[in-house]
Amino acid sequence: MEDPREILRKIRRLELRTRGRVDAAFSGQYRSVFKGRGMNFEEVREYQPGDEVRTIEWNVTARFGEVRGEAYVKKFTEERELTVLLVVDVSGSGDFGSVSQSKRELAAEVAGVLAFSAIRNNDKVGLLLFSDRVELYIPPLRGRKHVLRMIREILFFEPKSRGTDLAGALERLGRVLHRRSVVFLLSDFQAPEFSRQLGFTARRHDLVAMPLVDPREETLPDMGTVRLEDAETGELLEVATSDARVRQAYAEAVSERAANLTREFRRQRVDSVPLRTDRDWLPALQNFFRVREHRLGGRI
Questions:
Q1: How many whole angstroms separate alpha carbon 90 and alpha carbon 95?
Q2: Which of 104, 138, 142, 152 is deepest in the core (most CB within 10 A)?
Q3: For 76-80, 177-181, 251-255, which range has the lowest pLDDT when averaged over its residues?
Q4: HSE on the CB side for 17, CA within 13 Å?
Q5: What is the C-alpha to C-alpha distance for residues 48 and 72, in angstroms, rounded to an integer?
Q6: pTM score, two decimals?
Q7: Of residues 222 and 132, which shows the higher confidence score?
Q8: Domain coordinates of the chain in residue numbers?
Q9: What gap in Å lies between CA 92 and CA 214, rounded to an integer?
């Protein structure tokens, strides 16, 4: 087990890094690309040219309009407060990392930036960790200590299982979130069929998928005959990596799987932000914010 003092140091370093990136990159953007969950009624006022006819308040118009010769409309303001849920895959494959960090460490860093962005805008943020079961659920709250606890859990939580059930996690999400929320799903998506539940979640919530990728999973190096262990099932398999046909077939299978995943996101109208352990994730996230802001026309 890791030294508690070292755990605290890691969390503190990650806090400084993520908060700095929030300051540098996401000031204002987070607020503009995620809309509130509804509209609040503010007041009734006189109709003005350009107002939507459907906003006319007919009862008030009937009561006062005949005397004053005016129609009246309802005025609404957007409800800004959001609920954000970070859904993070802690299955066995998330511990893999061939570069400077594992997929799970990458998830913790990105989740930290999103969480600090949320609380800076006075939004609540929660956490759901899953493997082939829901391992941990932390209800949405505000505050720095709350965010630090979530970062700690993403980094150091020890799951009871190493498998992956993405559909089950999304189903549980549907039971704990009763209002439309923003959901960030961080996973390598190495899971059995989850299309139906993905679509259902995307219709109910603002779902953003964040596939986590490590370069060593995309290609097989030429290392002769090696014994590979499945990180989730423990199954052992001997692979002749010196055979060029084997390496090519593996690369093609990985490429096809990635293409199918991208098509599925598009089909279900799910925004996606691929994140890699061998590249700085900040440009990818910044580009996502820019594209989404442009798509929404910069409306707040």
A1: 8
A2: 104
A3: 76-80
A4: 17
A5: 9
A6: 0.79
A7: 132
A8: 4-26+81-295, 38-79
A9: 14
